[in-house]
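User: Before I run my own analysis I want an independent prediction to cross-check against. Here's the chain; please return only the structure tokens and, at the end, one sentence I can use as a sanity check.
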Amino acid sequence: MVSAPATVRLRAYQVGFGDCLLLTIGYSGPLPDGRSERHLLIDFGTKAQAPGGPTLAKLAPRIAEHCGGRLDVVVATHRHADHVRGFGDAAAKKHLLPLRPSLIIRPWTDGPAQTASASGHELDASSRDFLALLDSVGGLGARVVKEFGLDGRTAAGRVGQLAELGVVNQDALDMLGTWTAPDATVWVRADDQLDTATLLPGVDIRVLGPPTLKQVPRMSYASASSEYWLAMTREGALAPELTTVPADDARAARQEVAPPAGLGSAGWLVDKMHRAGTRQALEIVAGFDQVLNNTSVVLLVTVGDRSLLLTGDAQVENWSYPLDRALGENGRTAEPELSQALASVELYKVGHHGSRNATPRRLVGLWKSAGRERELCSVLSTRHGVFHQTVQGAVPKKELVDALKELGPVHSTDELPAGVWWFDVSASAMGKAQTWSFAPGPVISRPS
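Assistant: Structure tokens:
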């Protein structure tokens, strides 16, 4: 008889503004391979290291130690640096490569256009076009930076962020692609159900996002919504593809490319850069940044009696698909089973580092109206003052954090004492315990 899950623990590492979490499931006895634990690493990146905190290279050997030298599952929610940069860090890879996971979960937006998702679904034509668009952006950014000689010390240098979408993080994406056997990677989309019965006995992994463009035709960031803690930014869907700019003849490309639909094309970007400076380019940077957040993998993980919601940086269109179905809104048929599954979540990895546009009001409302037997425990991986330092746009957003505190404790990596590199929240996998236990890790080092 196969052992059942006995404990569940989520360890949040102090990476500053980024995500790195280790989900450990303890079993009542040894599994067929002789181990009594299973380990899932969710992301490994940062945008801004915590003051006095560890580098990703220093965290990598700790992760190897904490998983006993073996990772079972790796989830790379999306390609932003604050979620995957560590996989491309040369010093970190020395410790990660031997961990060789049995399963890597990545969004369909990172996969080959002709590859079916985990449940065998083929991509529709518009989704394949979207993949081509994402693949072309990094090269576009690199060419723009090269042509205009943009200096990262200036405001214009911010356009170099374009390259970060597909170039700066390429080492990380390459590592993920070659870390283990090719058939060990699954490219997931909303509605996939992962078959993990053998690898993770007693664990159910349900994919809520990202949707394909057939499921949600617009992967752009919503311009208006009563749903979110922030209802703003741009309108319009992305153009279905970017026109390639010839490396040796950007001027000819400007003459050949028609004005863009939505966020634009490569030729339009080059033309605008010549005629109007960097403003339009920076708008595109922001637009693509928001689009990539909506490619985040969203997982509903059930371990015994415990339900965990792991959201990456999912924002408006990503969330609209499961919530419309759960609540029967916007033309969708209500699905009571999905509604109950979401209402029963008791551990929430707060979306997008606590930004106000990544935790839907409908979801919080569902948690508040569900007559909960157990409080909601929220885990927040963030660093104050990195983005949107105004009161209105601060990350993490105080109003959001306060709303979550009405439902239960909110534990943030930004509140860890100096020299402490992680904290744990843990619980029995079975039974009716009302709370998750919180425990900070030991003091590893103190700032000099």
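Sanity check: The chain has 13 helices and 15 strands.
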